[in-house]
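Quick log. Single chain, no ligands specified.
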Amino acid sequence: MRYLILTVLCALVVPAWAAELRLHGEVTDVNTRTPFGEVLVRVYKDGVKQQVFTTGAEGHYNVRLDNEANYVIRFSAPGRVTKCFSVDTHGGEWTGDNRSVDLAVEMTLFERVDGVDLSFFDMPMGIARFSPMTGFLSWNKEYEERVQEEVSRLMAEIALRRATLGEQAMNPEERTSRQ
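-> predicted structure:
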């Protein structure tokens, strides 16, 4: 009984800490890395849309994520492929602390290409895990490696398709002179 009381007292003396996560960043063009403005940003918390806003002309976004939830942050623009990433903020937390952890994430968008199935990009391009108690954030490297293989394959297919479409757009004299 004495040890139980001592344990309870020690638990009461432990400082109260619970960090919150603030995401911010810029949406850019995948090829030029220049800011891509007026991008629609949708934030889903546990599968329910929570926020919808548009980046400014400079492509900047800011989002505060509550603890104890799963998030998907989705970026889209007309004529561009929609992309997203996810963040899990579940974990032990203590109340009464106002710390925040800032995380910058650049999201790159590229133009759609007719004739290429780009539905793979509906999947998160990255998965992060945030621990509110420690304020530590980590990315799932194994997932990223698996995703990167398919992204590389699709980007090569896109380049080939664009080259083919470019060739088809030329008139016959231009094609003959290039050969």
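The chain has three helices and ten strands.
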